[in-house]
Design brief:
Elements (H helix, E strand, L loop, with lengths): L5 H30 L4 H23 L13 E3 L4 H11 L1 H22 L8 H24 L10 H20 L2 H5 L1 H15 L6 H5 L18 H28 L6 H20 L5 E3 L2 H9 L4 H16 L1 H7 L4 H23 L7 H19 L9 H7 L2 H16 L22
Antiparallel strand pairs: 1-2
Helix pairs in contact: 1-2, 1-3, 1-13, 2-11, 2-13, 3-4, 3-10, 4-10, 4-11, 5-10, 5-15, 5-16, 5-18, 6-8, 6-15, 8-15, 10-11, 12-15, 13-14, 16-18
Length: 440
């Protein structure tokens, strides 16, 4: 690679990772903030601090040392699993108890990371492939809804929304079919930019948020007041954090296969510890619990760029967005259908990663087929019918109301039931070798 072009390419690839996860990153603070009746100023703070801590959490995972950081090209964002518990805690105990519970949950993960690192022995290929496939399947409905304009939009499913979303999808596919190298690796970013320009010409872009946003935001610890520590919310958030760890484990395994890296218990321990530290930061700065975003796995597979330098750049971009709300607001002009068109590709690639893992499984064994069938059916069923377990106690609902967690737990338990002996090492899976020497 030409050294003069290297910073531009790294910045472009990092920005592509940010745009891939941006919608999910800002949706959580908007949902929680509005549910807790925050005013416009406090809501703006919540979005900005969330982006900043997303960046710090991403950098923590990329910074590999003896204590924390898994060193994979992962991007962290606010966890959707925590949305309902945060709203429930905030409504009943107040917002200070929300952040006390998040801090306690993060500390628990940091202290328990060594023990949690041993759970990898419960993830042979039949489980890892099923979990990753389930993650992708659970994300697809969100992508399709975004293609139509997003839930609640007045023009849901309109011809203009479909033209935008399918236009972005088509452009990404064309770039991957007829181009190679840098243009191909940036296909998602190019598709999003082109789609946004088309949306501007169609009069579908609102610049209000950009015009009203401030130029500087200073992070403030305990912005909403000193945290309070209540036993009920703490236990709930510890459970939420454990659920987050299960989700992140599947993503770690998928990226490990993509990067041809055999992860060890120590790697997982450092990854979990980094996420625990990120969750504590979320509590201190009044943000959110954080987990590894699955959509960026699809981007790694599509771009073929597997170096962590790119996500380091993405982390710094997120920090900048958090410090300069005017820049962050500019990215909010991207219409939902444009993001939906790109998400279909990325989420579909997560599914294909899971299928590739399952190709290493002995499918001639009826037991393995039953593990895959029941786990995917239950996980997808809960995703489509989230009220399936609504009548169960609230502590259980935190776990089984999420399709990914339901499918993952089913895969783990069924594997233990059918295959009593489990290996401690992650079995290697043969993946297509790709040349990513361009970016180092």
């Amino acid at each position: 690679m030409n050294n003069q072009n290297r910073p531009f390419r790294l910045a472009s690839l990092g920005l592509q990772h940010v745009l891939a996860m941006y919608a999910g990153a800002i949706l959580v603070p908007l949902m929680v903030g509005r549910a807790l009746n925050l005013n416009a100023h406090d809501l703006s703070y919540l979005v900005a601090i969330d982006l900043l801590t997303c960046g710090l959490a991403t950098l923590l995972q990329a910074w590999t040392n003896r204590w924390f950081g898994i060193g994979l090209p992962v991007v962290l964002g606010s966890s959707f699993v925590a949305v309902t518990p945060m709203i429930a805690i905030g409504t009943q105990y107040g917002i200070s108890a929300v952040y006390g519970a998040i801090i306690a949950g993060g500390i628990f993960i940091v202290l328990a990371a060594s023990f949690l690192g041993k759970i990898i022995k419960f993830f042979p290929p039949v489980v890892t492939g099923t979990v990753v496939t389930m993650i992708g399947l659970s994300l697809v409905p969100s992508a399709v809804r975004n293609m139509a304009g997003g839930v609640g939009s007045k023009d849901f499913g309109s011809l203009s929304n479909l033209l935008l979303s399918f236009g972005v999808l088509a452009l990404i596919l064309i770039l991957n079919r007829f181009f190679s190298g840098f243009l191909r690796s940036l296909s998602v970013l190019i598709g999003i930019v082109a789609g946004t320009i088309a949306a501007v010409l169609m009069g579908k872009v609102d610049f209000t948020n950009f015009n009203e946003a401030s130029w500087l935001h200073i992070p403030t610890p305990f912005y909403f007041g000193m945290p309070t520590f209540e036993i009920g919310p703490i236990l709930t958030m510890i459970l939420v954090c454990l659920v987050i760890i299960i989700e992140s484990t599947g993503v770690f395994l998928a990226l490990g296969k993509l990067c041809d890296r055999e992860l060890t218990e120590k790697d997982f321990t450092k990854g979990y510890r980094a996420e625990g530290i990120a969750i504590v930061l979320g509590g201190l700065f009044n943000a959110f619990p954080y987990n590894t975003f699955a959509q960026n796995v699809g981007l790694v597979q599509l771009s073929k760029v597997k170096t962590k330098n790119v996500v380091v750049v993405a982390g710094f971009i997120l920090v900048l967005l958090g410090l300069v709300p005017k820049i962050a607001a500019f990215t909010t002009i991207i219409p939902t259908p444009v993001l939906g068109g790109a998400m279909v590709v990325l989420f579909g690639l997560v599914i294909s990663s899971g299928i590739k893992m399952l190709s290493a499984v002995d499918l001639a064994k009826q037991e393995n087929l039953l593990i895959i069938a029941c786990s995917l059916s239950l996980g997808l069923g809960v995703t489509v019918v989230p009220d399936l377990f609504a009548q169960l106690p609230s502590a259980l609902c935190v776990i089984v109301s999420d399709g990914v967690i339901t499918g993952s737990l089913a895969a783990i338990l069924l594997n233990l039931f059918f295959n009593a002996s489990v290996e401690r090492k992650v079995p290697s899976v043969s993946l297509e070798k790709t040349d990513y020497s361009e970016i180092k």
